[in-house]
Design goal:
By secondary structure, the chain is an alpha/beta fold. 53% of the residues lie in helices and 8% in strands. It folds into two domains: 19-262, Rossmann fold, CATH 3.40.50; 381-569, no CATH class. 37% of the residues are buried. It is found in: Cytoplasm; Nucleus.
Amino acid sequence: MNRLSNGILDFANMAVCSGLLVSTYDAIPEVKNETQNVCSVTCKDSGGDSGSGPRTIAFVCCDGGGDSNTNDDISLVDSGYASFPMFVFLKTEVNRSVSIRKAAIELFASIFDQLSVLKDQIDINRPLIVTGRSLGGSVASLFTLWLLDTIYLKTSKTPLCLTFGSPLLGDNALQRAISERPTWISCFLHVISNQDQVPRFLARGHMPFGATLFISESGCACFEDPQSILELIEATSLAKLEGSQFIDYGSMLKRLKYKAIRQGKIEEADACDISDPVKCGITLQLLAIEAIKPENIDTSPLILSIRRNIERFRKGKKNNSDQTKKLNEVKVYMACMGWYKKQSKNQGGYYDCYKTAESKSKDQGQTKEDLVIYQKKLNKYWEKTVKDVDRMPKREGATSIRPRVLYAGTNYRRMVEPLDIAVYYREGNTDYINKGRSQHYKLLEEWEKSSSKPAERHKVSSTTEDSCFWAHVEEALIACRNLTEENDTSTEDKESWNKSLFRFEAYVMSLIRMHTLSPETFQEGSSFMKWWEKYKTLRGISYKSDLTGFMNNKKVQNDLLVLDEYKILS
Ligand SMILES: *[C@@H]1O[C@H](CO)[C@@H](O)[C@H](O)[C@H]1NC(C)=O
Ligand SMILES: *[C@@H]1O[C@H](CO)[C@@H](O)[C@H](O)[C@H]1NC(C)=O
Ligand SMILES: *[C@@H]1O[C@H](CO)[C@@H](O)[C@H](O)[C@H]1NC(C)=O
Ligand SMILES: *[C@@H]1O[C@H](CO)[C@@H](O)[C@H](O)[C@H]1NC(C)=O
Ligand SMILES: *[C@@H]1O[C@H](CO)[C@@H](O)[C@H](O)[C@H]1NC(C)=O
Ligand SMILES: *[C@@H]1O[C@H](CO)[C@@H](O)[C@H](O)[C@H]1NC(C)=O
């Protein structure tokens, strides 16, 4: 038997054998009053007073009347649910409507004060298990999501949420919102017995998230991909059982544990074709949870369907690790660009060197063709990265971009956007900021500005901080040209160009004062100096301003530039 294909089965047995499931289930108090529309929460610490063992928070909830099949209870409400807008953070840009089961949100809301107190007492350095059965498990999931978005937001630690026989919590959009955060999705393990009707009442319109461990009297199997879980929930549904029969997960798990230890492996191993280990593995799992019967192995469409789901799901996952590999390539491209930038310093500066460079100049080691390739690859990588981050669940005003990614993104923006601007104006376009700027640059800049810890004014690459600086220079050049051309233009137009030039002057001065303009800006022949020559002529000899003061005083200028260079080195 191929071990790889059996990995999931092994995990399921391991989960059952570890005893964690049984001890967690035992921490859930018995339901006291089935008929009341109530939810209670208890807290149990193991490991004695030393407080070293895990803390278990357990939810017991009943949603009134025991008839959990009314339309009202199974209805989904928007996560921004008007009277209790607790879960708006789950909305994403791609899908603004995330729906959560109404009964679960209402129960959560009913004990919210108690939960707030409990949340404040949680020590994130201590392992935490959040659990519940039936609807209690749904509230446990909501509580876990809330913790993930608050106290666990800035750590790599996570709680573990174990639910038993819980109805599905929300729709496809909820599943996607959670799955887009790998650390979030890995917090959830749902246990579902093939004898339990509760998780099956509501399968339609809902979508599971996290891993699900299916158990039956004969075995267990664990699945991760939502589509397979949904199909299995439907497939393992027994013929209508009477009402809400109480399933004792504790004893079922104990029997399974005993069985798994005693037998080691499932017996039916010889029941399938070992020349196709993947199919064989899936068949064994489906047999174990009684989703198919031994006599249906050859005819059940479920095996093929689950296989397709799993393969699609794995492919999606593989793409994530491709992203990591790409990040390393991206670092190399950035290094090459940095090197080009250094070389171009005395050849008209980074911007103008790129804008005017002869295609074939080889003397710099990096030809311009190389640079164009790096520029394209970097743009492609960051466009995708920014899009992915933007789709992540987010709270108002807060982005979910990690500080390290934002730091790399800011470096990229300052390094590559000037080149995009150079291409844009070289091709004769105008008004880059309003008409040419790509959305991903805008978002990167926005995030950098709103991040609580603004990226330090790192000057390692001596890149001008405003990545749009050169677009402003180009526009100022055009305004100068507009003003000097002898056309029949209205005085209003002239005035507006005139004003925009004063604004540009003030903008340049502010950058100079903040030491955020790189020295090569002032090099002979740069676009900025071309503008300055034109501008000087336009204003005339008698014109005096802060900028003329700065530009005409070599000493002030040198002081500033030397200071700048010094800062680059230190
Ligand atoms: C359960 O709650 C209902 C409604 O509050 C109450 O009438 C009933 O007496 C309770 N039953 C028990 C056993 O506490
Ligand atoms: C958003 O979610 C709803 C509900 O699951 C779904 O019908 C809709 O197609 C989704 N929209 C997108 C753009 O994914
Ligand atoms: C994985 O990435 C490739 C190329 O980057 C893409 O064509 C494919 O659709 C992606 N697969 C999934 C499942 O997202
Ligand atoms: C220059 O003049 C053209 C034509 O009137 C106008 O469309 C453009 O906005 C002006 N550009 C600047 C930077 O003032
Ligand atoms: C001035 O006229 C020339 C030639 O017709 C034209 O190319 C240019 O855009 C005009 N400039 C302005 C500011 O309108
Ligand atoms: C620009 O504005 C200044 C101050 O308002 C004025 O002195 C100057 O004549 C104007 N120049 C042009 C070309 O309109």
